[in-house]
Each structure stands twice: as C-alpha cells, then as structure tokens.
Amino acid sequence: VCAQLCRRPCYCPWVPPRCPRGSPLVLDGCGCCKICARRLGEPCDFLHVCDQSQGLVCDYSSAPAGTGGTCNFEDDEEGCEVNGRLYRDGEVFQPSCKIQCHCLDGGFNCIPLCQEDVRLPTPDCPYPRRVEIPGKCCPEWICEAQDQHLLRDARAVSPLLRHPCPEWGTEWSACSATCGLGFATRVSNQNRYCRLETQRRLCMLRPCPALPAAFPAVS
C-alpha cells in the first residue's frame, strides 16, 4: 500500500492547511505532508488519518470493501464531540465557565452554573439590568439607571455641585371645570429624579350655584 500511494520524494504545499477548531496538524499516512487530522465520525483512509491524540482510529468495519472508513474510538466506546473536542462516555466537562456537561451514550446533558434568576423592579432598584462584569464569568444585576437618577437628584439639591438640575416646566393649564372642583395640568421636571412628567393639581374657579328646589315651599 505504501508503494502504491506514497510518492518519494514528498511534494507538499508551501503553506500548511488551516484546520478547523479541535483538529490538529498531523503527518499523513505516508509520513510525508502535514494534514488536518480527521475527527470523530469523519471519513478517513490510509492517507487521511484520524486524530490519534483523541484515541481515534479509522474504522472499516461498516464500510464496503475497497472504500474508506470512519473515524471512531479504538475500543468502540461511545463518546461525544462538543466544539470540535472529543469526550469519553461518562466524562464530565465544562465547555465554558457558565455550563457543566456530562457525556453519556453518545450525547451530552448540560446544566447552567450561573443563576438564571429574574430580578423585578423594586422601589430601591426600579431599573434592574443584567451586565457582564470584567473578570467574572456570570453576569450580575446592577441598578445603573437608579444610580444616575440619584446622582442627578443630588446635583439638584446640592449647591456645591457645578451642574445642578435646571428647573423647567410649562404653565398650569386652565381648570378643567368652570365651577366646583376640577384639575389643572402642566409638564415639569421639578421632581426628585429631575425628569419630565405630567403633574396635576386641584382647582376651583367658583362654587357651583345651588340647584333650584323641585317643589316650592307651601306658605
């Protein structure tokens, strides 16, 4: 087989091939040129060898005579492939710091290592947001918007800060009722968060006149 398939001297490309992730550069079956090692389940033959570092061999048991085989574990033990890396059956591994997986019967099950809790708005944290923290694997909840509001509120009440909150507002509208209690509205930022909001207040232009009696008094 070597005499038929392997030529001497070797003629190899100047630039070695770029291999997919998890497939190392190895010598072909002739020991001549560098090629990408075949991974679990990929086709193989004498020249295109499997990744021996993962315990793989070219399995010809299920291939027709005269054709190539398929890369499989040498001891026929089932395994699983995740992100180009092979794991043995029963092996526990972490593809990332956020999940942990268990290889079992040719497949794998994973569980999250980061809490998947949901934080609802509260009075002390009205705008929760989950962000990635540098140096930490799992994201954390922060109240950045609330902190900005508190800073803006502090600027409004403290005369020592250079940029206090400038007050702004429209005039009060006309009273909604021509007599009796009504309400007037305006848009203003005069509140603890220094943000525009619609404000209302009660108003009364004059008392409403008394309704006439249904039946006049009998003298």
Automatic annotation (TrEMBL):
This protein's GO CC annotations: extracellular matrix; extracellular space; nucleus
Protein name, per record: CCN family member 5
Gene: Wisp2
Principal localisation: secreted
Positions in coiled-coil regions: none
GO biological process, one term: positive regulation of cell differentiation
Classification via SMART domains: IB, TSP1, VWC
Keywords: Cell adhesion, Disulfide bond, Secreted, Signal
